[in-house]
């Protein structure tokens, strides 16, 4: 048994309990009522970094929630790895769909996690995956095997757009100077087949408001005589896709870089069962843009989805009302080279244009980000692949993700560094959903694999210092 595996075996109960401690703190950044909990989580991350062995740790103030920064510099001539993660989590709603309270973590077995999975909000996204890096660092410090410098930047606003991170990065470029950025906020194909995320979709997120009459109206006295904002909004949203599920916004696809046939063939090599996919989601058929496979639709193609829609009376019983207003939140996942600001503007212009004169429309942009692609000839990618190969016994498969981590493009622009996405979660881990969970196997396997990334990265860096 290697020194790393032996240390994990001797300390796994503590590693798990420390993660459970973090998960019990409801660090929901989207809801101000959780502000103290978010700040408490930042303090907890600070304390864990300090205990792990960082020679400098600080809680850095920002216009929003603080960023926890830590570093351990052993030799300025050695490369520096910057680890990014986030300590904030999604809101737990809807609470009634959770099988156990979202902030009272429990461990139980599942079909995909026979060794147990930790059920709690943030278990996989991103506290569990972020905390793997702290524990891997602790091991390297205890075993005196840290081969290079390391910095940690753990933020508290990822789930609400990372606005303060943008502010922080632009003002602290020397502080954050690095040779490669390492993030675990993505997933892999399965517990027997690791994969490395080589691409992320960008994002444009908007909220729309449709206003009809100046007050709520009686649906009997006014129904059929004035525009119903909920009816109008529903029709407008429905018109955003055609019969082939192609997005109808003029100019939306103008800058889309189409994947080559070679790229699509490489993607098709990843093991995938459409029947298992449908079974896992309890659906009879998949649905999406004509001419593309399921894995292409959710990774290399842009999308438009309604994330929430509301208006009028939704309480118990009946209330015959025509609401004055109706609302929806809409996200558009983007691919290279779509610009999120341009897409937001195209959406705004189109949505306002298709609105009937009987209503007023307001489009409020939220946050966004560019798509990102990591080349597989990058030494960071190669080091990650060697690390996965050692611990899983098979090479990792490069895979594009349908998700968005907008700050990755920011890092490349401001810090001039490539990002390596070493995720250990599974698609079935229900991130952003009720009953989010993270396998104990995945958590411990991540802690085992990460130190190997450092080893191989330094080896390759010395061979390719440029």
List keywords for this structure.
466 residues, alpha+beta, Aminopeptidase, Alpha-Beta Plaits, 2 domains, six-stranded mixed sheet, four-stranded antiparallel sheet, 13 helices
Short description:
With 466 residues, the protein is of the alpha+beta class.
> What is the percent of helical residues?
25-40%
* Overall strand count: 18
Mean of residue pLDDT values: 95
Beta strand %: 15-25%
CATH superfamily of the largest domain: Zn peptidases
Q: What gyration radius follows from the Cα positions, in whole Å?
A: 23 Å
Largest sheet strand order: 1-2-6-3-7-17
| Biggest beta-sheet profile | 6 strands, mixed
List the helices and strands and how they pair.
Elements: H1 3-23, H2 35-52, E1 56-60, E2 67-72, E3 80-86, E4 106-108, E5 117-119, H3 127-142, E6 149-155, H4 163-171, E7 180-183, E8 195-200, E9 202-211, E10 217-218, H5 219-222, H6 229-238, H7 261-267, H8 274-281, H9 294-297, E11 303-311, E12 321-322, E13 325-334, H10 340-354, E14 360-369, E15 372-373, H11 379-392, E16 397-400, H12 407-415, E17 419-421, E18 437-439, H13 440-463
Parallel strand pairs: 3-6, 3-7, 7-17, 8-16
Antiparallel strand pairs: 1-2, 2-6, 4-5, 5-18, 8-15, 9-13, 9-14, 10-12, 11-13
Helix pairs in contact: 1-3, 1-13, 2-3, 3-13, 4-12, 11-13
Describe the fold and architecture:
There is one protein chain. The chain is α+β, with helices and mostly antiparallel strands. It has helices at 3-23, 35-52, 127-142, 163-171, 219-222, 229-238, 261-267, 274-281, 294-297, 340-354, 379-392, 407-415, 440-463, and strands spanning 56-60, 67-72, 80-86, 106-108, 117-119, 149-155, 180-183, 195-200, 202-211, 217-218, 303-311, 321-322, 325-334, 360-369, 372-373, 397-400, 419-421, 437-439. It folds into two domains: 3-200 and 371-463, Zn peptidases (Aminopeptidase); 203-256 and 302-368, 2-Layer Sandwich (Alpha-Beta Plaits), CATH 3.30.70. It has 13 helices and 18 strands. A six-stranded mixed sheet has the order 1-2-6-3-7-17, sandwiched between helices. Strands 11-13-9-14 form a four-stranded antiparallel sheet. A three-stranded antiparallel sheet has the order 4-5-18. Strand 1 and strand 2 (67-72) form a beta hairpin. Helix 1 (3-23) runs antiparallel to helix 3, helix 2 (35-52) packs parallel to helix 3 (127-142) and helix 4 packs parallel to helix 12 (407-415).
